[in-house]
Amino acid sequence: MVKKKKKTAMYIGMILITLVVVFPFIWMVILSFKSNSDIMSSPLSLPKTLNFDNYKNALKTLDYLQLYRNTVFVCVISVVFEIIITFLSSFVLSRMVFKNSKILKMIYGFLIMGLSISPFILLFPVYKINVVLGLRGKLALIFIYVATSISFNTLLLVGYLKSLPTEIDEAAVIDGCNIWNLMLKVILPMTKPVIATIVIFNVLYIWNEFPFASVMLRDVSDYTLSMGASFFKGNYTVDYGGIVASSIMIIIPELIFYGIFQKNIVEGMTAGAVKG
Amino acid sequence: MYWLSKKRYKIGFLIPTLVVYSVFIILPIIIAVSYSFTRYSGIGKAKFLGLDNYIRLFQDKLFWISLKNTMIIFVLAFVLLLTVAFLIALLLNNRLKAVDASKALIFSPAIIAPIIVGIIWVYILDPNIGILNNILEAFGASEMKQKWIGGEFWSPYSVAIIYFWQQLGYLVTIFIAGLKMIPNDVMEAMRIDGANGFQEVKYVIIPMMKTTISTVAVLVITGVFKIFEIVQQTTGGGPNHLSETLVTYSYSMTFTSSHYGYGMSLATVTFLLSLIITAIYSFLTKEKER
Fold first, then answer.
1. d(CA B233, CA A210)
2. B121 and chain A in contact, CB less than 8 A
3. Spatial separation of the C-alpha atoms in residues B62 and B68, rounded to whole Å
4. Which residues contact B240 (CB under 8 A, 6 or more apart)?
5. Going by C-beta distance under 8 Å and a sequence separation of 6 or more, which residues neighbour residue A265?
6. Between A13, A17, A116, which is nearest B106 by CB?
7. By C-alpha distance, which of A22, A56, A238 is closest to B129?
8. How many whole angstroms separate alpha carbon B259 and alpha carbon B15?
9. Which of A83, A124, A130 is the best mutation test for B, with the most CBs of B within 10 A?
10. CB distance B24–A28 less than 8 Å?
11. How far is B142 from chain A (nearest CA, A)?
12. Domains observed in chain B
């Protein structure tokens, strides 16, 4: 019976840990139904009724549709752009022959180096570069999001493309494939799983990104979701209820996204870590 | 394949990536370091100062406070995350019902926006409206109430706890991936030889998971030097910059006070520091393995 006792202890441990981690989320949901004055005067009380005022207020203050539209706009352009360029460069780095293999290694190392570069040293210089290039608002975010993804994408794509046998290329060429057909019709379809991981990982990154957005975005009409989340503070009175409701409206789609693509998200985050 | 390795393809396919990467990652670092030797207020031209900013930095009390706070967060988060995440991984690596759901839930803080992580914890740690102090009061332990955030003492510790909450599930997942790589026969042999759980962990699991443990350690080191939104949301670095970390201090110097030159010297030092600590860590663990 020792074994059974041990199992029970394990279950209790697992449930307790899960509850402790999840509790802050649940608390947010509870708070979102309390009025602002209730949150301040009796913080522990539970809401008596389902009061959607906080959500209504939040929706009145901020245009969430616009926030989502901006975020999706930046996401789609950045991710499509980065996939195109890093697929091409990774194809060269993994499947082409270099007379001097040192050059190959150098380029690869150069591109991977970015994994250890903190974004905070880049904030002001990138802002300056964007000013010089005349990139403003949402557009100012695209290149930097593409650039910060290069190291990660290169790591995953080169690793994966190297694992595909070279015989594929040879067979395709003998069958009369040119380089474009080989890349787009033969290799690209085989790379789908990694590309899925890269896309999901980077969408999540852009969705959550705050430091660059806070530096580049001036107009509320350009705000992305994470900027919207920080919007309610800085008014004279802190609208606690509004902040909670607005945060929940940002989290929920994210959690649904996580629910659907959990496998890819976990894979992307751990693959980047373990290989890097 | 040699046939398709024509020079024009190689150059043509590499160039877009190399250009974007150089202009938006490499060039900015050069710009940041150059500005760190100047005084620049955003208007007019930057004035060359030589090493003045770095000398000022070492005499700046707030720099040392930020460094101290960063180190408190680092040490606390490092110890907590490495031990607790490892223990939870050992637990969740067992065949339990609903263990996948539990893993997924524990992982979820890692995927939501860090800015919202900060917001969520305001409602737990805020001295007035936060649940922690109110629970302490409700249980008659008012003397234990603290200014968990926004006071002079507890802020960095609170930030470490919040960071711990955010990263826990992520690191548990990495540890579990490491545990899965230990061959089953090794564990079985150990059990047949009569090892107990503690011996298993000490003599088999930990030695066989060295790479995973270093990965996690490096992640925590580099991660701590990227904590930004949590501090920004919970304390904003206040009161009087006392809860500032290196990253938030350099941000506020650069963008709030418009001391761009000095801000860049702070950013440069912060970046170098994280590289140095990572290098020291890898050096120390490599030595041991020999």
1. 12
2. yes
3. 10
4. none
5. A200, A201, A204, A258, B111
6. A17
7. A238
8. 36
9. A124
10. no
11. 15
12. 60-257 (1.10.3720.10)
Tokens of B106: 């524990």
Query: Distance from CA of residue A40 to its chain's centroid?
Result: 34
**pLDDT over 60 (residue B221):** yes
How many contiguous H segments (helices) and E segments (strands) does chain A have? 14, 0
Residues A190-239 have pLDDT tens digits of 999 899 989 988 999 999 999 999 999 988 889 999 888 877 765 556 77
Reported ipTM: the value is 0.89
Q: Distance of CA A125 to CAs A226, B107, B127, Å?
A: 22, 34, 38
Best to test chain B binding among A17, A45, A205, A275 (most B CBs inside 10 Å): A17
Length of chain A: 276
Give pLDDT, residue A234.
54
Q: Write b or e for each residue in B157-173: b if 16 or more Cβ atoms lie within 10 A of its Cβ, otherwise e.
A: bbbbbbbbbbbbbbbbb
Residues of B in contact with A110 (CB under 8 A): 21
B1 exposure class (CB count in 10 Å sphere: 0-12, 13-18, 19+): middle
From CA A37, how far away is CA A29, in angstroms rounded? 17
Spatial CA neighbour of A212 closest among B9, B229, B88: B229
Token couple for B230:
């949590």
CA distance B84 to B103: 14
CB contact under 8 A, B28 and A121: yes
B290, pLDDT greater than 50: no
In chain B, the percentage of residues whose pLDDT exceeds 70 is: 97
Answer yes or no: is pLDDT of B288 > 70.
no
pLDDT for A98: 85
Distance of CA B242 to the CA centre of its chain: 20
Measured distance CA(A172)–CA(A164) in Å, rounded:
13
User: For residue B2, what pLDDT band results from cuts at 50, 70 and 90?
Assistant: low
State chain A's mean pLDDT as an integer.
88
B82 and B216 Cβ atoms separated by less than 8 Å? yes
What residues contact residue A242 under an 8 Å CB cut-off, 6+ apart? Answer: A36, A54, A57, A58, A61, A232
How many Cβ pairs closer than 8 A exist between chain A and B? 253
The neighbouring-strand residues paired with B47 are B39
